[in-house]
Design brief:
This protein is an alpha+beta fold. 34% of the residues lie in helices and 22% in strands. The chain has two domains: 51 residues; 152 residues, no CATH class. The strands form two sheets. A seven-stranded mixed sheet has the order 1-3-9-5-6-7-2.
């Protein structure tokens, strides 16, 4: 089985130079098969060809990567939401007791206008393999953990912005959203059949996450 990549930083200049060198060697090897230089130059100078090549490279990289970076976001807290008050079962929200006991009871309340910066990634490892929590956290890099207060305020803000399962930063297609804290993984998902968000926690017990979930990383 091929070794799974767990990149946590962009390609270096040296790696880019190596990639360019390999591409040049490929062109030199097959240049007699490519036809006239004018036609080749016309294709190489076109944006469509370059976009297609980038898409192919990205697809192959993702096929051997645990995580793929999808973006960054600054979240501003718009209301004070005491965790023990917010995280109660009601219309549109279902909170498991493990989250209430392990996270909400330990969390404080964050003030209005507090800014929380996050990066978000997608699990892109091939579905037949799955990714362990250890692999995911290695790919996320250091200082990726949320504390209980921050993760409670962040999820409350995101759920409030996506009431009724509206589209937003949280996936609302049945796939889970993951947030790592010191001793657990917090799971958030939209349950379409019941029209409510579900918040729960899970232990790091060696289970594997299949392709598709969104993983958030603290970048404050």
């Amino acid at each position: 089985m091929a070794k799974v990549m767990t990149p946590s930083k962009p390609m270096s200049s040296r790696q880019l130079d190596k990639l360019v060198s390999h591409y040049r060697a490929m062109l030199e090897k097959h240049r007699n098969e490519l036809g006239s230089s004018g036609a080749v130059q016309q294709v190489l100078s076109g944006g469509k060809y370059l976009d297609e090549q980038l898409a192919v490279l990205r697809r192959h990289v993702e096929s051997v990567s645990v995580l793929t970076y999808r973006g960054s976001k600054t979240i501003r807290i718009t209301a004070e939401r005491p965790p023990l008050d917010f995280y109660q079962d009601r219309d549109g929200l279902w909170v498991w007791g493990d989250f209430q006991n392990r996270v909400a009871t330990r969390a404080g309340t964050i003030e209005v206008d507090t800014v929380i910066n996050v990066d978000y990634h997608e699990i892109t490892i091939p579905a037949e393999n799955g990714a362990t929590d250890e692999q995911i956290e290695t790919a996320l890099g250091s200082k990726h953990l949320f504390d209980e207060t921050t993760v409670s305020a962040l999820i409350a803000e995101m759920i409030s912005a996506q009431e009724g399962g509206r589209a937003g930063l949280l996936l609302n297609d049945g796939k889970v959203n993951l947030f790592y804290i010191s001793d657990r993984v917090v799971l958030v998902s939209w349950l379409a059949g019941s029209s409510r968000w579900v918040v729960d926690t899970w232990g790091r017990d060696g289970d594997r996450w299949l392709r598709g979930p969104r993983v958030f990383r603290s970048s404050n």
